[in-house]
Design goal:
The chain has 2 domains: 116 residues, Rna Polymerase Sigma Factor, Chain: A (Orthogonal Bundle), CATH 1.10.1740; 74 residues, Winged helix-like DNA-binding domain superfamily/Winged helix DNA-binding domain (Arc Repressor Mutant, subunit A, Orthogonal Bundle), CATH 1.10.10.10. The chain is 73% helix and 0% strand. It contains 10 helices and no strands. It starts with a helix and ends in a 5-residue tail after the last helix. The relative contact order is 0.08.
Length: 197
């Protein structure tokens, strides 16, 4: 094992121990996780929202971590991937309120896609493909040309990491409606982007 892999393995062990302690109610361990992650989370949030909201969301993320750490299962993936999914969900929860005052699409904000990929590090092949595609300006424009309901579905499922069921619950809609929107949105994207189909 090379030295970088050894350092990464050691860091993962430290993080797993901190998570275990947080599950047991150890606020010092939560503080240690905050010290490790707050800078990256804040930088990510600043790329999507204004400073005041980023600060508020940063605190909200760590409150949510404290409340939901029991949901993390190391058998299903790394803490980084789980934690940054939590961060993205908190950001998306705040966006409908925030977007009343902000017309810019989240994916058009420079660095958002790149920072998600950088922070999670161990995403599945499908997610990696989607992130690579979103780096392409042509796809961003195509997504922005989708009807609002299809655009929201594509962004929140393929980029935001929500399952069809989770999005249906969040929007209080039947799962079949979400699946239909996703299917129609993907069909429309294929028409708009024939060379990438």
């Amino acid at each position: 094992m090379d030295s970088i892999s050894a350092i990464n393995a050691q860091e993962q062990q430290v993080i797993e121990q901190l998570v275990k302690r947080v599950r047991q109610g150890d606020t010092q361990a939560l503080g240690a996780l905050y010290d490790r992650y707050a800078g990256r989370v804040y930088a990510f949030l600043l790329r999507a929202v204004q400073r005041e909201l980023a600060e508020e969301l940063l605190q909200d993320v760590f409150v949510a971590l404290w409340q939901k750490v029991y949901l993390y299962d190391p058998q299903r993936g790394s803490f980084n991937a789980w934690f940054f999914t939590l961060v993205r969900h908190r950001l998306y929860d705040a966006l409908p309120k925030y977007q009343k005052h902000q017309s810019e699409d989240l994916l058009s904000v420079p660095g958002v896609v790149e920072s998600v990929a950088e922070m999670t590090g161990d995403q599945s092949d499908l997610e990696d493909q989607v992130i690579r595609l979103f780096r392409d300006e042509e796809l961003r424009r195509a997504v922005n040309h989708l009807p609002p309901d299809q655009r929201q579905t594509i962004l929140m499922t393929y980029f935001g990491g929500l399952s069809h069921k989770e999005l249906a619950e969040k929007l209080n809609l039947p799962v079949s409606t979400i699946k239909g929107r996703a299917r129609l949105g993907l069909q429309r994207l294929r028409q708009l982007l024939p060379e990438q189909s």
